Amino acid sequence: MRSITTLLFFALAALFLAAPCAHADDAKAREIMQKVNDRDDGDNAVSEEEMILIDKRGKQRVRKIKSFRKDFGEDTHSILFFEEPADVRDTSFLTFDYDDESKDDDQWLYLPALKKVKRIASSDKDGAFMGSDFTYGDMTERALSKFSYEMVREEDVDGHKCWVIQSTPINDDVVDEYGYLKSRAFVRQDNYVVVRAQFQWAKGNKFKEMRVEKLEQIDGIWTALEMTMKTMKNKEIVHQTLLRTTSIQYNQPMDETMFTTRRMETGL
């Protein structure tokens, strides 16, 4: 898992079938998505984030977060600490992303009011993360083997040529796990960054769209500094989340004990 605003390299399409079905896999599209997955993100990172929740009336709630991420061999561990406002202060979220695609990623949420660390079950990954437009499943990198890929077309996004790649879950279990039917990712051809994505919920006739609003190279690493995720129903925005990185540092010294359930309870 990267900083929050660089998490989503697979978002999901809003335009197609009402149920998953088998598709021939496109070797070129899969190769591109593999390169998206393999992009350099540093050995570790520490960042400060703002999560801004915006309802359909335009009312905003701002949450401030401190994020840490470190590579453990081929695996990646990440932890988020919510610092503001008071109603979410000391909440923390820990993720273990495994390189082995046969293993389910592990996630835990600590709620200070309950003084208890809760493990997020695979069946709950389609739930909203902390009231945002992101799901728990969005907070991890999806296993490429769980989807088939198709090259749809090429399209310019903000003056940059992109491949538009559609991904389809290989079976109903994957749909149940992530909550989506289809996805389309708009991948910049010059740097393999997903700068736009669209997706369709399996339930509720809802659609979502992700857009990277601000992208910069920091220490040679392409970093999404601002990202929006919008939830729509009947073509109207019902809720949206803005993620903004206010500071980020790569390849800093970092204690491995940061990434434990015990640290979730003790906080920063």
Helix-strand sequence: HEEEEEEEEHEEEEEH
Strand content: over 45%
Query: What is the number of E strands?
Result: 13
| CATH superfamily caption | Lipoprotein localisation LolA/LolB/LppX
Q: Describe the main β-sheet briefly.
A: 13 strands, antiparallel
Radius of gyration over all CA atoms, rounded: 18 Å
Q: What is the top-level CATH class?
A: Mainly Beta
Shape: globular
The tally of domains stands at: 1
In DSSP terms (H or I, runs of 4 or more residues), the helix count works out at: 3
Domain Uncharacterized protein TP-0789: 75-265
Keywords: Signal
Signal peptide: 1-24
InterPro entries: TP_0789-like
Structure notes:
9% of the residues lie in helices and 48% in strands. It has 268 residues and is mostly beta strands. It has one domain (4-64, 125-255): Clam (outer membrane lipoprotein receptor (LolB), chain A), CATH 2.50.20.10. The chain has a 13-stranded antiparallel sheet with strand order 6-5-4-3-2-1-13-12-11-10-9-8-7. The chain starts with 26 loop residues before the first helix and ends with a helix. The relative contact order is 0.24. Mean pLDDT is 87; it is low at 5-22. It holds the Pfam family LolA_like. Residues 1-24 form the signal peptide. InterPro entries: TP_0789-like. Keywords: Signal.
